[in-house]
Specification:
Length: about 475
């Protein structure tokens, strides 16, 4: 009897194991990139043996510093500070998941019964949006040299459009998922950059942080590992100007073997009426000088001349970038609207970020942006020099494209994610009504609310949310 009691103390009834507890965490958050043919194929995480062999590296990558929220974990890659603002598609592990993985290692990293292993998700091949209206492909293969160095390349894609095209979405399809790290697509006047291609002996032309020309359209599309592509909400569209070529700017990750890529673009045209076009304002500050051996801060503002609904933004710097903070102040109250903060900028992980709901900013609002640059001596910058704005690797940039539409009443209640969810629609019936008020009241009283219950977006759930929801219904 004493022996059995001792065994129960050492081995609890439900010990943590890979099959039941760890495989859901890995397969849902890591395996999409960490598998054969993908950008992280060098470290596959598709079964127990692979996870076990790399368990200490995984623990290091997901834990970060041991202080608040484990600091800034390396993985999953999500540079934005989640405590500052709430954005779509946030990639992160919960505190519970991080601790569970660490505890699993501490008790021996057991596999458990394979029959309990979480099913491998179905990772889509090709388009995530369905059948495109048109596919545009690179003219030829590009050979990615296996020299284990980053390669930044621009490719010209002819469209043949003699009239402007309204886009519901532009989807970049990597031809080589192991090689392509990220991509950005713009339009330029037809033939205007052919000379750049002709001057380079290889297919395409070298580019870093820019496109080799200032005569570009708004950013039309892009790609980064893990990023989710969506169509614009009904009635919204971007436009490809008539008589345009497209430029695909691709960052190829370091490879130790020679490989080829032939990426393509899926175009989805808006087949319904276009009520509003998505515009882009580029906040740029070129008037800075970064002295060696110093950390410097660069600032810029944008004062709005009309009511807008902000829907996307992309902070962009080069290799000296250290932190970003972007927020808005409202004209009547000076209330601060946090937009995004990045505490550890990384050139290799940059996205177009979207808020969950359109952010209404009235005329007279001021958007503030600041970026710090670390030009001190370190392993990546052993010989600091004076650094200025420029396109080259060793130059710097302060550049933020903001995507927005002209404001219409109710925009702030439009959810920008995949599902047509409205703020306050707690029962998911597609509308906001008294039933949602009842559900909200009950969840506030029981302290068991979901994110959709935070009507005033203050990070809490209380009577203020109930009052605001009632006012929304009565308007």
């Amino acid at each position: 009897m004493k022996l059995w009691f001792f065994i129960i103390l050492i081995f609890p009834i439900h010990a943590i194991d890979f099959s039941a507890d760890i495989s859901p965490i890995i397969y849902e958050n890591c395996t999409s990139c960490h598998r054969s043919g993908q950008i992280a194929s060098f470290l596959p995480l598709t079964n127990y043996e692979e996870v076990f062999d790399n368990r200490f590296w995984i623990a290091y990558a997901i834990e970060g510093e041991q202080d608040s929220r484990h600091g800034e974990p390396l993985m999953p890659p999500w540079p934005a500070d989640r405590s500052y603002s709430t954005l779509l598609d946030e990639m992160y592990l919960t505190e519970e998941e991080i601790h569970l993985f660490s505890d699993w290692i501490d008790i021996g990293a057991m596999q458990g019964d394979p029959i309990n292993e979480y099913p491998m998700p179905s990772f889509p091949d090709g388009s995530a949006l369905g059948q495109p209206d048109l596919v545009l492909e690179m003219n030829e293969n590009y050979v990615v040299t296996g020299n284990y160095e980053d390669d930044y390349r621009c490719f010209i894609i002819e469209t043949g459009f003699d009239e402007a095209k309204d886009l519901a979405a532009m989807e970049f399809i990597p031809g080589n998922l192991e090689a392509v790290h990220h991509a950005i697509i713009v339009a330029v006047p037809e033939g205007s950059v052919d000379h750049l291609d002709a001057e380079d002996s290889l297919y395409g032309y070298e580019c870093f942080g820019d496109f080799g020309t200032s005569n570009i359209s708004d950013f039309l599309g892009g790609y980064a590992p893990g990023a989710i592509i969506r169509k614009w909400p009904d009635g919204l569209a971007q436009q490809i100007p008539s008589n345009s070529d497209l430029i695909m700017q691709i960052h190829y990750a370091p490879l130790n073997t020679e490989q080829i890529d032939k990426s393509s673009i899926n175009l989805f045209f808006r087949d319904g009426p276009v009520d509003r076009y998505v515009y882009e304002y580029n906040m740029i500050n070129t008037d800075f000088a970064l002295p060696p051996n110093q950390i410097s801060e660069v600032n810029q503002t944008w004062t709005l001349t009309e009511d807008i609904s902000l829907i996307q933004f992309l902070p962009h710097a080069h290799l000296l970038g250290e932190t970003w903070e972007i927020y808005a102040t409202l004209p009547s109250s000076n209330e601060i609207i946090p937009i995004i903060r990045i505490n550890d900028w990384d050139f290799d992980w940059q996205f177009f970020y979207s808020p969950e709901y359109m952010i209404h900013l009235p005329v007279g609002s001021v958007i503030h942006a600041s970026c710090t640059y670390d030009n001190t001596s370190n392993s990546e910058n052993p010989n600091p020099q004076w650094t200025f704005w420029g396109d080259n690797t060793n130059d710097e940039m302060f550049f933020i494209p903001f995507r927005y539409v002209s404001y219409l009443e109710g925009d702030e209640n439009i959810y920008l994610g995949n599902n047509p969810v409205y703020l306050g629609d707690l029962n998911g019936d597609g509308g906001v009504n008294v039933l949602d008020v009842v559900m909200l009241t009950n969840c506030v009283l029981s302290a068991s609310c979901s994110d959709s219950a935070d009507i005033n977006q203050d990070g809490g759930y209380n009577v203020l949310d109930v009052v605001l929801l009632v006012n929304i219904i009565l308007e």
